[in-house]
Specification:
The complex is a heterodimer.
Chain A: H1 2-20, H2 22-28, H3 30-57, E1 64-68, H4 79-82, H5 89-99, E2 104-117, E3 120-130, H6 134-137, E4 142-145, H7 150-154, E5 159-162, H8 164-171, E6 180-183, E7 186-194, E8 212-215, H9 216-223, E9 231-235, H10 242-256, E10 268-270, H11 272-315, H12 317-325, H13 330-366, H14 374-400, H15 404-409
Parallel strand pairs in A: 3-8, 5-7
Antiparallel strand pairs in A: 1-9, 1-10, 2-3, 2-6, 2-9, 4-7, 5-8, 6-7
Chain B: E1 3-14, E2 17-29, E3 34-38, H1 45-52, E4 60-65, E5 68-69, H2 75-85, E6 86-89, H3 101-112, H4 116-129, H5 145-157, E7 163-167, H6 175-190, E8 194-198, H7 202-205, E9 210-215, E10 218-224
Parallel strand pairs in B: 3-8, 3-9, 6-7, 7-8
Antiparallel strand pairs in B: 1-2, 1-4, 4-5, 9-10
Helix pairs in contact in B: 3-4, 3-5, 4-5, 5-6
The chains are: A alpha+beta, B alpha/beta.
Chain lengths: 411, 229
C-alpha cells in the first residue's frame, strides 16, 4: 500500500520535473531518439524485406523440386561444380518418362536479350524458355490471353507470354495480344500477359513481372542449346511426400547420368527451403548490424541521460534533504529519480517512434513495402524505459544515499 | 518517559581528527513538556537537535524515543521514526517550492503510505489549525514568512508526532511575526503536544517551561522555569 502511494508521488515529481525542464529533456533525449529511430527502422525494414521476399519466393511453391547442375547457394569451393556435365533438354524427357505421367517435369533456361516493340526497347530482358508444364510447377497464371501449350512447344512456335511490367513498358495502353515483338533477332507473337507476381528484385533476385516466356524448343533453336544446362522443375504427384519424391528424383537422375554407386551426384536438388535458409542467414546479419548501430546510439543517449540526472540530483539536493527529514526512505528517493530518468527516455522513445513512422513511410514509398507494427512500437518504448532505468540508476542511487543533514544544509 | 538521552557523545571525524561535538549528555523529557535547548554556537546544540530528530545517531550512549532505542537503527528505520514520531519546524521553513500548501502538508502522510481520502482530511485539518485554510492552493513563494512557517508547523503536526522539534523557528521572521508563531507553539503545547525548541534567543526560550543550556558539548544547566510567557 505504502509503495503504491509513494510511487504515485514519485511519478508526480518526475512529471513536474519534466515539465519544468522541457527543452533540456528533449535535448537530453536526442541520443535516445536516434537510437529508437534506428531500432524501429531496422526492424521495420527487416520485416518489410522478409515479407516481400516471402511473397516473391512463394511463386516457386514449396512442393516443387528444382534439379540443376549446381546448387542455388554455393558454399565453399565453386570448382567442384564447374566440371559437372550439363543437364540436357532430352534428360528432361527421360526424367518425365521415368517418374511417370503423374509427376510434372518442366525444363527451363533463361537468356538475356533485348525485346522490342515498334520504337520501345527493353535492353537485357530475361527471356525464359519453358513449357506448358510451367503452369503446374508455378502459381503464375496469365491475366489475359493464354499461356504456352504443348503444341507451341512441340512445333517450336514463335509465340510468347509477357509479364505485366514488360506489358506496361512496351505497350502502355495498347492491347498486346497478337502483336509482334522482337526478341533478339527473332520475331514473336504475344499470346498472353501474366498476372502480377511481385518482385524479388530488391534482393538481386528475379523480377518475375519483367520476364518473357517462350517455348523452350524455340528458345533452343533461336539462342542455341548445345552448351546450355537446363533446370528441371519437378512437382511430386498428388499424395506423395516431398521427401520421398526427392529420393525418387535423385535415383532417376543418377540413372540418367549413368552414375556408378560409388560416385557422388553430379547434379543438385534445389528447394525453396534452401533459399529461405540463405535469406534468413542474410537477414540475421542485417539485423545484427542494425542492432549494433542501435546499441551504440542508445549507449550514447544513456550516457547523456545519466549526466542530466546527475545535474538533476545536484539541483535538488536540498529537496531530497527535506523529503528525507520528513520520512522519505531511500527507496522512495531512488524511485523518484528512476522514474524521472525513465520518463525522459520514454519521451525520447515516443518522439523516436513518431519520427520512425515518417522514416517507414519514406521506405515504403521509395524502397520496399514497410510499415511500423504495434509489437515494434512496444519493443521500442520498452527499450527506452529500460535505458532510462539503467542510465538513471547510479544518479538515483547516489541521491537515495545522501545524508539527510548534509542534504538539508545544501544550498 | 517520552525521550531518554543517556551519556550521548558525538564525535565527527574531520581530516582524521575527532571533533567532540557532544561529550556525554543525559536528560529525560516527559510527555507534554515544553523545553528550550539553548547555547552559543559550537556548543553542540545542532548536533543534539539532529540526534533528537533522528537525523543522526550518537557515537556513544543511548537515545530512547517512545520506547525504541534509536542509536541502533539503520537509515530507513530512522526515516520511518522521523515520519511517525517527529515533526520538524526549521528556521528556513524548508518547504517544497514547486508544491502548493496542501501538497507540502500532505507529504509526510504520503511517505507514511496513507490513502488519499484520509490524507486529504488530515492535511486540511492541520492547515485549518494554523489558520491557512484559504491558502490551501498557494505556493510558498506566494506566502509571507509567517505564513510559510505556519505551513511548516502544519506539516510537522499532520502525522500527530510524539515530539515537535523546532530549530530557531523565529530566526527568519520579524519580531511581531515571531511572536505570532510562538503563540501557535504555546497553543499546541496547551493541547498536549511535547515541544522542543532549539534557540539562542532568550525571549523565545522564555515560552518554554524548561531550559537546557549546553556549553562545549556538555549540559551547563537544566532548569525548570516559573510559568512565564
Amino acid at each position: 500500500m505504502s509503495r503504491i502511494h509513494s510511487s504515485v508521488e514519485a511519478l508526480r515529481i518526475a512529471l513536474a520535473a519534466l515539465r519544468a525542464n522541457k527543452a533540456r529533456g528533449v535535448l537530453t533525449t536526442l541520443g535516445i531518439i536516434i537510437g529508437i529511430v534506428a531500432v524501429v527502422t531496422t526492424m521495420t525494414a527487416a520485416n518489410g524485406l522478409a515479407n516481400s521476399f516471402r511473397e516473391s519466393v512463394s511463386v516457386l511453391g514449396t512442393d516443387v523440386l528444382y534439379v540443376s547442375r549446381t546448387p542455388w547457394i554455393i558454399q565453399g569451393r565453386f570448382f567442384q561444380f564447374r566440371n559437372r556435365p550439363n543437364l540436357k533438354l532430352k534428360d528432361s524427357d527421360k526424367l518425365a518418362r521415368q517418374l511417370g505421367s503423374e509427376a510434372a517435369v518442366n525444363p527451363t533456361d533463361d537468356a538475356r536479350r533485348p525485346v522490342k516493340y515498334m520504337s520501345e526497347v527493353i535492353d537485357n530482358a530475361t527471356v525464359i524458355g519453358t513449357t506448358d508444364k510451367h503452369m503446374l510447377v508455378s502459381s503464375a497464371v496469365p491475366e489475359y490471353g493464354r499461356f504456352l501449350n504443348a503444341h507451341d512447344v512441340a512445333f517450336k512456335r514463335h509465340v510468347c507470354v509477357i509479364g505485366t511490367t514488360m506489358h506496361e513498358q512496351l505497350f502502355g495502353d495498347v492491347d498486346p495480344i497478337n502483336k509482334k515483338i522482337k526478341v533478339g533477332r527473332a520475331e514473336f507473337r504475344v499470346i498472353g500477359v501474366m498476372e502480377k507476381q511481385g518482385s524479388a528484385g530488391t534482393f538481386g533476385g528475379p523480377d518475375f513481372d519483367s520476364q518473357i516466356f517462350i517455348p523452350v524448343t524455340t528458345f533452343v533453336r533461336e539462342f542455341g542449346g548445345r552448351f546450355r544446362s537446363f533446370d528441371f522443375a519437378v512437382k511430386a504427384p498428388p499424395g506423395t511426400s516431398v521427401e520421398d519424391f526427392e529420393y525418387q528424383v535423385v535415383g532417376e537422375m543418377r540413372k540418367i547420368r549413368r552414375l556408378h554407386p560409388s560416385e557422388d551426384d553430379d547434379f543438385a536438388i534445389n528447394k525453396m527451403d534452401s533459399l529461405l535458409d540463405a535469406f534468413n542467414n542474410v537477414m540475421g546479419v542485417v539485423l545484427m548490424v542494425g542492432l549494433a548501430v542501435t546499441g551504440i546510439s542508445l549507449f550514447v543517449g544513456g550516457v547523456g541521460v545519466m549526466n542530466i540526472m546527475f545535474v538533476s540530483v545536484t539541483e535538488r539536493t536540498h529537496e531530497i534533504g527535506i523529503r528525507k527529514a520528513i520520512g522519505a526512505k531511500r527507496r522512495a528517493i531512488l524511485q523518484q529519480f528512476l522514474l524521472e530518468s525513465s520518463m525522459i527516455c520514454l519521451l525520447g522513445g515516443a518522439i523516436g517512434v513518431a519520427l520512425s513512422f515518417g522514416v517507414a513511410a519514406a521506405i515504403d514509398k521509395f524502397v520496399l513495402p514497410a510499415s511500423v507494427s504495434l509489437p515494434i512500437v512496444v519493443i521500442a518504448l520498452t527499450v527506452s524505459v529500460a535505458v532510462g532505468i539503467i542510465s538513471g540508476f547510479i544518479p538515483a542511487w547516489r541521491a537515495s544515499r545522501l545524508n539527510p543533514i548534509d542534504a538539508l544544509h545544501y544550498e | 518517559m517520552t525521550l531518554e538521552v543517556r551519556s550521548v557523545e558525538k564525535i565527527y571525524e574531520m581530516n582524521s581528527v575527532g571533533v567532540h561535538a557532544l561529550r556525554g549528555v543525559s536528560f529525560d523529557i516527559a510527555q507534554n513538556e515544553y523545553v528550550a535547548i539553548m547555547g552559543p554556537s559550537g556548543s553542540g546544540k545542532s548536533t543534539l537537535m539532529n540526534i533528537i530528530g533522528c537525523l543522526d545517531v550518537p557515537t556513544k550512549g543511548s537515545y530512547v524515543l517512545d520506547g525504541s532505542d534509536v542509536g541502533t537503527l539503520g537509515e530507513d528505520a530512522l526515516a520511518e521514526i522521523r515520519n511517525e514520531k517527529i515533526g520538524f519546524v526549521f528556521q528556513t521553513f524548508n518547504l517544497l517550492g514547486r508544491s502548493d500548501v496542501f501538497h507540502n502538508v500532505e507529504l509526510p502522510l504520503i511517505y507514511a503510505g496513507m490513502r488519499p481520502g484520509q490524507r486529504k482530511k488530515l492535511a486540511e485539518e492541520a492547515i485549518e489549525k494554523v489558520g491557512l485554510a484559504d491558502r490551501m492552493r498557494h505556493r510558498p513563494n506566494e506566502l509571507s514568512g509567517g505564513q510559510r512557517q505556519r505551513v511548516a508547523i502544519a506539516r510537522a503536526l499532520v502525522n500527530r508526532p510524539t515530539i515537535l522539534l523546532a530549530d530557531e523557528p523565529t530566526g527568519n521572521l520579524d519580531s511581531a511575526t515571531g511572536a505570532e508563531i510562538m503563540q501557535v507553539f504555546d497553543q499546541l503545547h496547551s493541547e498536549g503536544n511535547t515541544i522542543i525548541l532549539v534557540t539562542h534567543e532568550d525571549n523565545v526560550a522564555a515560552h518554554a517551561h524548561r531550559e537546557i543550556r549546553l556549553f562545549d558539548g556538555l549540559i551547563a544547566s537544566d532548569t525548570l522555569q516559573s510559568e512565564a510567557a
